[in-house]
Design brief:
253 residues, 42% helix, binds 2-phosphoglycolic acid, single chain
Length: 253
């Protein structure tokens, strides 16, 4: 059975005191509740250790938003997967479209990062998704298949089984323009078929595929009602407890 996950991606937002307050607020809001999904928050590197120490990490998983493509050494300013794991974080978001576009992360670099994340016991939340021109040209399935194949298809089935995918159409990120639940379902079903052809039906069926892109309290229920949408990766709406909690509760019966 695959897991449902609601994951926040704070991006480059919040100072450490602000981030701690947000994490503690969410921790408080979840007290005495048993959500029908796993809850994860992706925070800046600087916040990971303090947040992991301040909240109940059995209820809220902590994620880094990136990690280095090198194990260790003379890479000034980089943060390794081992360093991330040593903070108490359990996840790492990799291949976000902002990292691909602004920091030139290629499929090859991401393949290395995924390997290092797995080697250090982190669960990669691996992001894929097409830009608007690709959707308009009708190449979105091909583009997403390529992103998956180029970075993940050399993994062993056992390692692939540890990956969480996040389909985030770039045109929907931070734009307030969400993919319709039918568009999300169509792509997620397509992705699952691509995974099944490579890794078999069982692994494909067990893979958690999140939707990301302007997901919010108003559209979350409809999106996660789709059979192949197993949760969300949420940017803007993860920055307040008030906006994030209803997305977690979208899984409530
Ligand atoms: P958004 O961001 O929810 O603000 O659109 C999603 C993401 O980039 O992961």
């Amino acid at each position: 059975m695959r897991k449902n996950i609601i994951a926040g991606n704070w991006k480059m937002n919040t100072t450490l005191p602000e981030g701690l307050a947000l994490a503690k607020g969410l921790n408080e809001a979840l007290k005495g509740k048993t959500p029908n999904c796993d809850v994860v928050i992706g925070t800046p590197f600087t916040h990971l250790a303090s947040i992991a120490a301040a909240i109940d990490t059995t209820k809220i998983g902590v994620a880094a938003e990136n990690c280095a493509d090198q194990e260790k050494g003379a890479y000034t300013g980089e943060v390794s997967a081992a360093m991330v794991a040593s903070t108490g974080a359990k996840y790492v978001i990799l291949g976000h479209s902002e990292r691909r576009a602004y920091y030139h992360e290629t499929a090859e670099i991401l393949k290395t990062k995924v390997g290092l994340a797995l080697a250090n016991g982190l669960t990669p939340i691996f992001c894929i998704g097409e830009v608007l021109e690709e959707r308009e040209a009708g190449t979105h399935f091909e583009v997403v298949d390529g992103q998956i194949k180029d970075s993940l298809f050399e993994l062993s089935p056992a390692d692939f089984g540890k990956i969480v995918l996040a389909y985030e159409p770039v045109w929907a990120i931070g734009t307030g323009k969400t993919a319709t639940s039918d568009q999300a379902e169509e792509m997620h079903a397509h992705i699952r078929a691509t995974l099944a052809a490579k890794f078999g039906n069982q692994l494909a069926d067990d893979c958690t595929i999140l939707y990301g892109g302007s997901m919010n309290a108003g559209n979350a229920k409809e999106l996660v009602s789709k059979p192949n949408v197993d949760g969300g990766l949420i940017g803007g709406a993860s920055l307040s407890v008030e906006n994030f909690m209803p997305i977690i509760e979208a899984f409530d019966k």
